[in-house]
Amino acid sequence: MAGMLRGATPRRELLRAGLTGMSSLTLADVLRCRAQAAPPSPERTAIILVWLRGGQSHLETFDCKPQAPLEFRGPFGVIDTNVPGIQVGELLPRLSQCADRYTLLRSVAHTGGGHPSGSLQVLGGDPDAADKLFPVFPDWMSIVSHLRRDANRAIPNYVAVNPVDTYDNFTIAGPGYLGSSCEPFKVVGDPSTPDFRVPNIGMPADALPQLSRRMDLKSGLDRLARTIDLKGTMDAVDGFQRQALGLLTSPAAQRAFDLEQEPTTLRDRYGRNAWGQQCLLARRLVEAGVDVVATEFDGPLCGRVQNWDDHAVNQHIFEAYQHRMPTFDQAVSALIEDLYDRGLDRRVLVVVTGEFGRTPRITQVASSGGGVASREAGVVQPGRDHWPRANTMLFAGGGIRTGQIIGATDPRGEDPVERRVGTGDFLATIYRHLQIDYRNTAIPNFAGRPIPIVSSGEAIAELAGAT
Q1: How many domains, the chain?
Q2: What are 147-197's pLDDT values in tens digits?
């Protein structure tokens, strides 16, 4: 039969079996037959999110304004890329040489002026401009985890490498009413250190028989518990158990998380630091079949306050960019080039963004303390504040049309003047790549009310897949 998978049972035989002996089939038999009879599914797409917690300055990176007045213009110039007519900040020499493999969206705007509200708008589509301690709507990563859940997979479908989850005491991302079963598998720590290990991955082969006996006993007890389970919690527990068992026993899962499998030259190419190795691990995970990998760039590589929140009171913004951008430039460019080199560029989409941009007008405020990229306390230094009215996002791979600029801001970088894009449009674009029908998909909240995964917005047409 044309288009059948090797070893599949012909539909006609399945139907005959169903008519003559369905009573002898178990539920597992029925599901197996259904899977074998189904046509092959399209290639499974994936996304890597590189999250710049605190909000990167579009003016120092991808939407520079070298002709702006002095009170807006920073000290850095622009450089040409390998795409005629496209320029980026001079601190991005490596990314300038692979601009044909990404697209810059320079006209993202929303109303969330605080770190929590900005993050909740970008990641979850919450239209509220107020900061909240916890999200009302689940983030898109958790929704994908929910919609693409597969109990038979040994590897999680959502992994967070240095998780995107909190800002101070605010929770900026999470599953909300989807419940804890949609939480990511979290990888913490610095993957560039020699002693880095991902816990709960793999176990000695001689321990497997004992584990199997314990799981058989536990399965019998769980069946008993399920008969008195009134809240459906056993299903969630089962999901966690299956995932944990898969991570413990699957050689493929063990390999996916093992950076030692990579050649030394490739690890060096990404950079022997936290951000570089986070990106390399993200590539390994999507290659192994993970649907969503979210990784956050923060910590000492950012400067004194360890994030991208470059108020003058926090740190000297221009010294901070000189400190962090070589690492950023190397890690992100290596990730993009590696995906293309491996033929993953149509299947895997990379998105690089924070919650908003920074104020075009430079502020001058006394530092609250000295340190990396910050003057001593009391010394006046430059900074930029929160700016949700304009931000630039980078998209690479994903089969999109690359080597282009979408949208534009005014000469000072204050507001979009071409192709303004909202967070709903961004989320719709994410779901389109992941082959999720964002127009007709809704998920019940705690009250049982179906909530659309995108309440307003359309996928960005200019990012549609290249033909």
Answers
A1: 3
A2: 998 877 888 999 999 999 999 999 999 999 999 989 999 999 999 999 998
Write the DSSP assignment of 276-296 as a string of letters.
Answer: HHHHHHHHHHHHHT-SEEEEE
**Bridge partners for 49 per DSSP:** 294, 351
Q: Are residues 241 and 325 in the same domain?
A: no
pLDDT digits (tens, 9 = 90+) for 343-394: 999 999 999 999 999 999 999 999 999 999 999 999 999 999 999 999 999 9
CATH number (domain holding residue 367): 3.40.720.10
Q: Which domain holds residue 232?
A: 203-249
Under 8 Å CB-to-CB from 374, ≥6 apart: which residues? 303, 304, 305, 314, 315, 316, 319, 320, 367, 381
Whether 59 and 35 map to the same domain: the answer is: no
The closest alpha carbon to 413, from 63, 11, 15, belongs to 63
Asked if the structure places residue 296 within a domain, the reply is yes
Estimate to the nearest angstrom the gap between the alpha carbon of 224 and the chain centroid.
39
Over 90: is that where the pLDDT of 234 sits? Answer: no
Extract the runs of DSSP E, i.e. beta strands, from 142-215.
Answer: 158-161, 166-167, 170-171, 185-187
